Structure prediction request, 504 residues.
Amino acid sequence: MPGSRIRLLAVLAATALVLAGCGDDEPSGGSSAPSGELTVFAAASLTAAFTELGERYTAANGGARVTFNFAGSQALATQVRQAAPADVFASADTANMDKVRDLVGTPRSFASNRLQIVVERGNPTDIKGLEDLADADLKVVLAGPDVPAGRYAAEALAKAGVTVEPVSQEDNVKAVVTKVSLGEADAGIVYATDVTAGGDEVQGIDIPEELNVLATYPIATVNQSRHPSEAKAFMDMVLSAEGQRVLETHGFLPPPTT
Amino acid sequence: MAVGFLAVPLVGLLGRTPWGSIGTELTSPPVLEALRLSLVCSVGAVAVSVGLGVPLAFLLARVDFPGRNLVRALTTLPMVLPPVVGGVALLLAFGRRGLVGQWLDRAFGIALPFTTAGAILAEAFVAMPFLVVTVEAGLRAMDRRFEDAAATLGAGRWTTLRRVTLPLIAPSLGAGMALCWARALGEFGATITFAGNLPGVTQTMPLAVYLALETDLEAAIALSLILLAISLAVLIALRGRWFPSA
Prediction:
């Protein structure tokens, strides 16, 4: 009878979906030692540094895979609040960590960063400082006002007393670098680490210490994580001497000592 | 199960809508700004699509030229291309360093990224195929004897076009424009990649929803509701064409 065949197909399809959803990639070694998969939500500016840390983690933990979700910290905080399957959350500012404070363990600061003006290689528009960004003929791209990098940039500009009309507000700091390296924008304000990571296409213009902003990066394990021991292991690695060295090679500064 | 799959997200949206504060949300400046910009850009995109697409539809329907199939494939490509890929392609073509863009920049000082015109271009790129395909179908289905009759009665080509052909394909043109408009209104990937995101200039409603989700869920839901209502309106208006009773 066609009716029961359709029903059978529907049950098979539903079962397949459920099985696919439940698929656990944990190897047979149990979940007490760090051996399972790990999902890390990290600010976009941490892309290069954390990818390397992820490789080291995998090597040190018998091939345990680390999956990263790099995006603007504000987007990640919202996803964590919506119960996304994150095990670790690393934000580019304390404000976004505070947004999910009730959902994570005790945050620890693990790095700092400073801002730089990013321009195309060769600095064709001859930008020397923040004041130059006020030029109406210049296409300046900033991270959006809710993105940590955007907020820090606004702080620095306010300190310098400069008003900038950006042509676009990007969703994360990497997108700002992209627009500049593509030649679409003349300048942007990003982290010093992003300029380093941006490669040969871009160069950075320093912002004087008194105008610059120190970005503090906190990291925390997510309470609802299904891999709590792995999460702790990764967080410990980030905070360890090895982790700090990796962050330093990517241009990050040590966390504030307070 | 299929109906559930399609209906549950909509029910979820309506269920989470803050009906109490929806009035304030819908009239708040950022929402109105995004709405105004979306309307301007989508109507602009339809205008561009009609201006370029209707002649193209005529060409594809009436003229048998070498490479016609290729042109038709090219026309429908944006329909299947992932929108963000479209955005990347537009950047490489019309960006400041793009194939055509660098000439525009040098010769006329025109830069399309980061402008409302750029947003219109991005929306037209993804939406025009809908118009072309619908109008071409209408032209093919049309009884050409009416045009012949007009010719025998002494009407010139332009008069025939104006008073016979266009009225006859008006339903297809209308449907094509409605589809084109709905697609343009909902465009996100190409817009954010090519035109950028700036409130009042390029932040259309889909972009506003995406960004509002990160910080202000209520505003995101309000905007989503508007887009949902518009989509429903288009569907209802086109119901005769989607499900022809014959």
About this structure: The domain at 36-238 of chain B is CATH 1.10.3720.10 (MetI-like fold). The interface with chain A takes residues 1, 91, 95-97, 111, 113-114, 192, 196-199, 201-202, 210-211, 213-215 of chain B (CB under 8 Å). The radius of gyration of chain B is 21 Å.
